Write the C-alpha cells for this entry.
Amino acid sequence: MKKIKRESITDELYRLVLDTETHHNHDIIEDDNGVLRWAANPDIVRIMENISMNDLSMLLIKLGYDQNSEIYRKLYRDIGYSLYGYWEVFYWEANNEKAYDYVPNAK
C-alpha cells in the first residue's frame, strides 16, 4: 500500500472527482492489488464492522442527507472506498440522478 499524489492521477473519471472535490485533502492510496482508494480511517472502519453500509445509508437518507451531502461522501472516503466505486456512487447519474447538482462543501 502506498500513498498517491492527486496530481499524478490522470484517469478521466478520477480527475472529475478530484477536480471537483478540491475542498478536502483526503489521502489516496494504491492498495496491494493496484486499486486506488481513499485512505481509510481505522476508527470509522472499526465502527462500520457492526453496521451495514445499507443500514447506515438508509439512516443518512432518513436524516435528510443525500449523495450530494458532505457527510455522506466523507463516510465513503473514511471507509476507504475505491475511487472508481466513489465515482459510481456519487458521480454516475445512474446512481445519483442529481450528480450534476453537487456543490462541494455546500451547507
The mean pLDDT is 93. The CA atoms of residues 28 and 38 lie 5 Å apart.
